[in-house]
From TrEMBL:
Region described as Disordered: spans on this chain: 1-63, 180-200
Biological source species: Pseudonocardia yunnanensis
CDD domains: GrpE
Top-level lineage group: Bacteria
SUPFAM superfamilies named in the record: Coiled-coil domain of nucleotide exchange factor GrpE, Head domain of nucleotide exchange factor GrpE
Source lineage: Bacteria, Bacillati, Actinomycetota, Actinomycetes, Pseudonocardiales
Compartments reported by the entry: Cytoplasm
Pfam families tied to this protein: GrpE (PF01025)
Protein name: Protein GrpE
UniProt keywords, alphabetically: Chaperone, Cytoplasm, Stress response
Amino acid sequence: MTEHAPDRMPGRTAARATTGQDDTATPEERTGTDGATGSAAPARSPDDRPEGRPGPDAAELEDRWLRAVADLDNLRKRYARELGREREAERELVASAFLPVLDTIDRALEYADADPESIVDGIRTLREQALAVLAGLGYRREDETGVPFDPSRHEVVGVVEPNGGGAAAGSVAEVVRPGYGGPGRQLRPASVTVAQSSEG
């Protein structure tokens, strides 16, 4: 009868047989983990960022900077061209609006020798046309009296006593020089005298 030699380390031998691993390997080598968390440690290159993506190098950053500078310069040139066109269009608009005024002056001068009264009529027409041009551009005439004094529309050049049938205290008594414009778009404030309170 043949005797089998007893297994000296039955547990270790069984583990070797089932896993196929060398018992001389370290736990990290056997499991492929970092030993601290038990999870597989990813391979990282020296240039990788914490997110795992390599950052831009100096050449790429310089290229981005040059592109941004070129785009900004192109934008500046395009804005300058557009601004010039807008200014030219505004000048053309104003000049065209005043052409009827010049036509009226020409007609008044043509009839000046035959009828001197036509000069006066021409001046009246010119005034109405000029006022219409300014109003069309957003600057209507401001020459009302008796309205409350408004520092955004009026410029005080004098203070007067209220008269019997005139302006009330704190209102415009007389317009010395008319203003042109409107709320938030004042071309020139009206120079006025203001009626003060008789108690002051």
